[in-house]
Design goal:
It is a single chain. By secondary structure, this protein is of the alpha/beta class. It contains ten helices and 15 strands. Strands 3, 4, 5, 6, 7, 8 and 15 form a seven-stranded mixed beta sheet that branches. Strands 9-10-11-12-13-14 form a six-stranded mixed beta sheet, with helices on one face. The protein has a two-stranded antiparallel ribbon with strand order 1-2. A hairpin with a 5-residue loop joins strand 7 and strand 8. The longest helix has 30 residues.
Length: about 425
């Protein structure tokens, strides 16, 4: 098989493997280099970001195949002339992709949606529990939220805070929970007090809130902590909560630490968080929002599966929302790489995607993958997003990663052929006189 076809197939298959191995991670995929070329990346609604990676490698492999090179060494070596036939796939494939992109972005598929305020603070991340710092974080975000209210002229449908930026935990008491005998006061009183504070805050803002928050469930068997996004109405009632499903290894948990809790002694983490049970569509003022937390948008199949499951339950989302705390990365190249992943999730699923990121980069992305507005890194900012809902469906939502899966299967076949061939050649060499 020519390198023109083999190289993109192998590359694409290995990208799919990278999205699954060790829980998966697909930041800085080859196709992400084209995230600002809107017409080109529309093929992502057919084959995901993997389709763009295939295309980029196809062009590169075609160019490499055209170059002259030495074949073999010594007297038996020969030279290969410039090949012109790779010009055809190198030209035709991008042209077809651009034509498809032009068709998919033409016409009016949108309708007016909600006005959402994305709040970005610049609170530095660390592992230390500092009550004074937590009060300062809350004050900064409340101030920015008030600013959003002024700048919007009072026309807001939702305010979004980033991951864990509402610093007061959201407590839940299981039915079987009983206060220990030495408890200084009933847990129910504390839960009531924190909910009252949340209600006062929601009432003062006058807009529903989607808050990144730690959720803690108290049970007879012990407590469970979740990294969550909670929807709060004007009365302060929690209307719904999404608990993060795809956790970051060594960031949110340590492998095997449930059986060996002493492992946390070797980490700045005081303990891990639990995996959420299922995706949630949080509805406010007639619009369904599907939240994700932190790096979940880095992995294509994670977000796609959530959207597919919500549709199966009759709760198909209108808007995707990612709440994240990227201050851990101090304004590094991780921030634009994360944003590139968000662009592809919007195109793959044909949903507008909103990002509220502590430390940046927050963004308003439409269903074509255009970054309508983005914030600076490591700075306070408020983005007012007049979201346009999208009526289109995508083949990728329905079929998923099957094209990349075929490429990965081909990689496996090549590996088997290579191993068998090497063994046969080794056997022949051993039999030679």
């Amino acid at each position: 098989m020519s390198i023109v076809l083999a190289a993109p197939i192998v590359w694409t298959g290995l990208e799919l493997a990278r999205a699954h191995v060790l829980t998966g991670f697909l930041m800085a995929a080859l196709g992400h280099t084209q995230s600002r070329w809107i017409e080109l990346i529309q093929i992502s609604d057919l084959a995901g970001a993997y389709g763009v990676s295939f295309l980029v490698m196809l062009v590169a492999a075609s160019l490499a195949r055209m170059l002259p090179m030495e074949l073999g060494t010594g007297e038996s070596g020969s030279s290969r002339r410039v090949a012109l036939w790779p010009l055809l796939p190198m030209t035709l494939a991008p042209v077809l992709a651009l034509v498809y992109g032009h068709v998919r972005t033409s016409g009016d598929y949108s309708m007016p949606g909600p006005r959402v305020a994305l709040i970005q603070g610049d609170s530095k991340a660390d592992w230390k529990a500092d009550p004074e710092k937590e009060r300062r974080i809350m004050g900064d975000y409340m101030r920015l939220t008030e600013r959003a209210g002024r700048e919007s002229g009072g026309r807001l449908d939702l305010v979004v805070w980033p991951e864990t930026m509402y610093r007061e935990p959201l407590w839940e008491l299981a039915e079987d929970y009983v206060d220990p005998p030495d408890a200084p006061y009933p847990a129910r009183d504390y839960v009531t007090a924190t909910r009252r504070e949340l209600a006062d805050f929601a009432g003062s803002i006058g807009v529903p809130l989607l808050l990144g928050v730690d959720a803690i469930e108290l049970r007879a068997a012990g407590s469970r902590r979740f990294n969550s996004a909670a929807l709060v109405d004007l009365s302060g009632e929690v209307k719904g909560r999404y608990d993060k499903i795809h956790l970051v290894m060594f960031g949110e948990y340590i492998p095997f630490a449930k059986r060996m809790p002493w492992l946390y002694k070797f980490s700045p983490m005081t303990g891990g968080v639990e995996r959420g049970a299922r995706p949630e569509a949080l509805e406010s003022r007639g619009v369904r929002y599907a939240p994700s937390v932190c790096y979940e948008t880095v992995i294509p199949h994670v977000i796609r599966r959530q959207v597919v499951e919500l549709r199966r339950r009759g709760e198909g989302p209108d808007v995707l929302v990612n709440v994240t705390n990227d201050a851990w990365f101090h304004g590094s190249s991780q921030l634009p790489m994360h944003l590139a992943c968000d662009v592809f999730r919007a195109v793959e699923l044909r949903k507008p995607l909103l990002v509220a990121a502590n430390g940046g980069i927050s963004a308003w992305i439409d269903a074509d993958g255009r970054i309508v507005r983005q914030s600076p890194r490591e700075a306070e900012d408020v983005i007012l997003a007049d979201v346009q809902l999208d009526r289109r469906r995508s083949l990728y939502t329905m079929l998923g990663d099957w094209p990349a899966g075929l490429a990965l299967a081909f990689c496996g076949m090549l590996a088997v052929v290579g191993v068998v061939g090497n063994r046969r050649n080794g056997a022949k060499d051993s039999q030679a006189p």
